[in-house]
Write a structure and sequence with these properties.
Elements (H helix, E strand, L loop, with lengths): L2 H8 L2 E2 L6 H10 L1 E7 L3 E6 L3 E3 L3 E5 L2 E3 L9 H9 L4 E7 L2 E6 L4 E8 L2 E10 L7
Parallel strand pairs: 1-9, 8-10
Antiparallel strand pairs: 2-3, 2-10, 3-4, 5-6, 5-7, 7-8, 9-10
Length: 134
Amino acid sequence: MTKEELAARLNGREYLKEITPEEEAEAKAAGLVVIFGYSDDVVELRGAVNDERYDLDLFFDSNGLVQNQCEQDDCPYFKKLAESITDPVSAKWDTDGYAWVFRTNIPHATFDIMEDGEKYCRGIVIELPKGDKP
């Protein structure tokens, strides 16, 4: 399955029914990450990464989501690692007629999530970067 094929399947889904467990498994097998907004402060990740984040900038490498492992928010080690990743995924709230929009220079495919017939979220599907995994 490609990111474009998965995005086409998800397009038009209703909020809270964004992706099925079977589609999550297929996405994981294909190395795809589905990213969409939930509520007003949570970013959902499904497929090759299964997580929910409150961060508005997400960083990925060939192992998946790069996370801050420090106790503090302003961790110098995480900042250095994040700066080496040139293409984050940035979540934008309340823009372009959506509650959530995701922007990135990473090749991606988009899909729309609806809520009561109105645009709610413009989600994206990305493929994890290729590279050596430990």
